[in-house]
Amino acid sequence: MAPRQLRREVGIQHHDVQKLEMTHICSKPILIGPSILNADLSQLAVVCDNLLNSGADYLHLDIMDGHFVPNITIGHPVVASLKKHLPCKAFLDLHMMVSDPEKWVENMKAAGASQYTFHFESSKDVMHCIQKIREADMKVGLGIKPKTPVTEVLPYVDLVDMVLIMTVEPGFGGQKFMADMLPKVRYLREKYTNLDIEVDGGVTLKNIRDCVEAGANMIVSGTEITSHEDPASIIKLMRSSAEQLFNSTFTNQSTHTD
């Protein structure tokens, strides 16, 4: 991608473009969170428990209201019921693809959410939403859609725990991975070494290394995992692929330092 096109696509200024070719693997552990969007929702508790037992680090629950995105999934009553059937330590990352995300903070906290990830584009007052989530004692995630410049989140990065870079248009599972979103990840990792950066959409065994190399440390994968006959094996393979890149990079850095 040409520098001018790159700047137009991800909202990055000229003096930052050259940095994007660098590898910015995060030193934080790689976490894999299956999305249950395309899972069998009639067996949601069984599916989620199986995913956790198969090695998932957390669960990514897609909450859609039919307004912000053209699809409807589950709400806080289902999350609350699900939580009762999962281990107490299960980390639930709620991806709130809803209009007026402030409206559901208290309900999702009561339902058992661990992290409340809302979209920059959906909130009329991003700062207020962040504060409300903090007051509810949940971790804060801030997501952006593919067409939103990454620079839009910069005023809020120091106030959140995680930034979510969508690698598909939100609303439906099973879409093709948008590799041209990875410069956003690289840009953020260059600026914020300790920030949790999550990628979501079309992530598979074939492209997880690209995500990690760009600097993502939280990996959401839906169809690749939930449609596999053996979720444990695909999670293990994805983790191995990511950690091999992680380990080789830091081994090389240590060797060069010595």
Automatic annotation (TrEMBL):
NCBIfam families, A to Z: PRK05581.1-4, rpe
InterPro entries reported in the protein's UniProt record: Aldolase_TIM, Ribul_P_3_epim, Ribul_P_3_epim-like, RibuloseP-bd_barrel
Catalytic residue positions: D62 (proton acceptor), D200 (proton donor)
UniProt cross-references to PANTHER family, sorted A to Z: RIBULOSE-5-PHOSPHATE-3-EPIMERASE (PTHR11749)
EC number(s) reported in the record: 5.1.3.1
Example GO biological process: pentose-phosphate shunt
Co-factor requirement: a divalent metal cation; Co(2+); Zn(2+); Fe(2+)
Catalytic activity reported: D-ribulose 5-phosphate = D-xylulose 5-phosphate
The protein, known as: Ribulose-phosphate 3-epimerase
Annotated Gene3D superfamilies: Aldolase class I
Binding note for cofactor: Binds 1 divalent metal cation per subunit.
Organism annotation: Schistosoma japonicum (Blood fluke)
Residues involved in substrate binding: S35, H95, G171, F172, G173, G174, G202, G222, T223
GO MF terms held by the record: D-ribulose-phosphate 3-epimerase activity; metal ion binding
Class in the EC hierarchy, top level: isomerase
Family in the record: Belongs to the ribulose-phosphate 3-epimerase family.
Keyword entries, A-Z: Carbohydrate metabolism, Cobalt, Isomerase, Manganese, Metal-binding, Zinc
Residues at which a divalent metal cation binds: H60, D62, H95, D200
Pfam families assigned: Ribul_P_3_epim
